[in-house]
């Protein structure tokens, strides 16, 4: 995981840093206290930044090339892109700007979180969700359409910040990062208006037979350690994502991704049973290896499946293991 921390009381230094970390920009405004704190945690193209500005700052910036979400904790942000003025306040999570367009506005004595990811992830999640459009998915408004949507989006950003790309210092596993990124992209598509539309509901039931299920299950079993999406599994099973989902509901009483989680839980269980805490093995490390970033949620799932805490499996009877 890449880490970056910046503190300054110099406006020129802050402008240079912001231009380097985000996109070329000019900042200004009357400043009596130019102190700013910024920290970034990133893996690949996925990043989370925490920012604290003790002053009002006007900005005029180029395009970011990524989906950029802002979660406001204190203060306000005023967007003036395109000549309109839109004010965002504490508790809101919103799209800062269209990825391919410049933007301008003002941040007023604010504390906020920025989450950014590649736009292609929206397209992948739209396919996985059974939506289609004439081209790449485009978000058409910055705010969530409902209060519940805003809350889910805020929670997804907080989960990425606090449970995945946090300040613990250790790099999260690839599965943890990909799962969190998919969750965030899905929350964006659920909360914000966009150009994707629901695909026709008809499913070719001939493609949703037991053969489809067998191919999908075999692919999942062989590749559970990899970053998999619904589209990946459907491609391997040689059917559409919608037909794949129908096959799992019809023949297995679950979903493809639900089955994938169960397989990964089984692999985590096997690793816990085989590991020795005297060698430094921990429940958290093994859980994250299999894509479970939240220790509490992993423990709940594990108890539900195996009737005991994962720590009991790790620290249980080790007779005959060595």
Keywords:
322 residues, alpha+beta, 9-stranded antiparallel β-sheet, two-stranded antiparallel ribbon, 41% helix
**Biggest sheet details:** 9 strands, antiparallel
| Helical run tally | 11
Ends: how far apart? 34 Å
Given helix and strand content, the structural type is alpha+beta
> Which spans of ≥5 residues are poorly predicted at pLDDT below 50?
none
Helix content: 40-55%
Mean pLDDT: 87
Rg measurement, Å: 22 Å
- Report the order of strands and helices: EHEEEEEEEEHEHHEHHHHHHH
The total beta strand count reads: 11
Beta-strand residue fraction = 15-25%
Please describe what this structure looks like:
The protein has 322 residues and is an alpha+beta fold. It contains eleven helices and eleven strands. Strands 1, 2, 3, 4, 5, 6, 7, 8 and 9 form a nine-stranded antiparallel sheet that branches. A hairpin with a 2-residue loop joins strand 3 (36-43) and strand 4. The protein is globular, with a radius of gyration of 22 Å.
Task: Please summarize what this structure is.
This protein is an alpha+beta fold and 322 residues long. It is built from eleven helices and eleven strands.
Write the layout of secondary structure elements.
Blueprint: E1 2-8, H1 11-21, E2 25-28, E3 36-43, E4 46-53, E5 56-61, E6 67-79, E7 86-88, E8 93-95, E9 103-117, H2 120-128, E10 131-132, H3 147-164, H4 174-191, E11 197-198, H5 210-223, H6 230-237, H7 241-252, H8 256-274, H9 283-289, H10 295-306, H11 310-314
């Amino acid at each position: 995981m890449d880490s970056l921390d910046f503190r300054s009381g110099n406006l020129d230094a802050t402008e240079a840093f912001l231009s380097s970390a985000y996109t070329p920009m000019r900042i200004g405004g009357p400043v009596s206290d130019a102190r700013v704190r910024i920290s970034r945690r990133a893996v690949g193209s996925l990043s989370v930044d925490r920012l604290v500005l003790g002053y009002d700052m006007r900005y005029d910036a180029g395009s970011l090339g990524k989906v950029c979400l802002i979660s406001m904790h204190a203060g306000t942000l005023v967007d003036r892109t395109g000549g309109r003025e839109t004010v965002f306040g504490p508790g809101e999570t919103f799209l800062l700007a269209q990825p391919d367009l410049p933007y301008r506005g003002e941040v007023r004595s604010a504390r906020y979180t920025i989450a950014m990811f590649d736009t292609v992830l929206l397209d992948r999640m739209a396919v996985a969700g059974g939506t289609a459009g004439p081209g790449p998915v485009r978000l058409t408004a910055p705010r969530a359409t409902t209060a519940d949507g805003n809350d889910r989006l805020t929670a997804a950003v907080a989960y990425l910040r606090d449970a995945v790309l946090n300040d613990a210092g250790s790099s999260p596993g690839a599965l943890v990062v990909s799962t969190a990124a998919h969750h965030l992209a899905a929350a964006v598509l659920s909360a914000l208006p966009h150009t994707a539309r629901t695909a026709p509901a008809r499913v070719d039931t001939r493609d949703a037979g037991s053969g489809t299920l067998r191919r999908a299950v075999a692919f999942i079993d062989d590749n559970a350690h990899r970053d998999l999406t619904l589209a990946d599994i459907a491609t391997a099973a040689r059917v559409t994502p919608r037909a794949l989902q129908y096959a799992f509901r019809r023949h297995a009483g679950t979903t493809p991704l639900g089955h994938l989680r169960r397989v990964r839980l089984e692999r985590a269980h096997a690793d816990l049973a085989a590991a020795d805490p005297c060698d430094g093995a921990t429940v958290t490390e093994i859980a994250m290896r299999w894509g479970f970033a939240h220790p509490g949620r992993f423990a709940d799932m594990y108890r539900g499946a195996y009737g005991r805490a994962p720590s009991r499996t790790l620290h249980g009877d080790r007779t005959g293991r060595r």
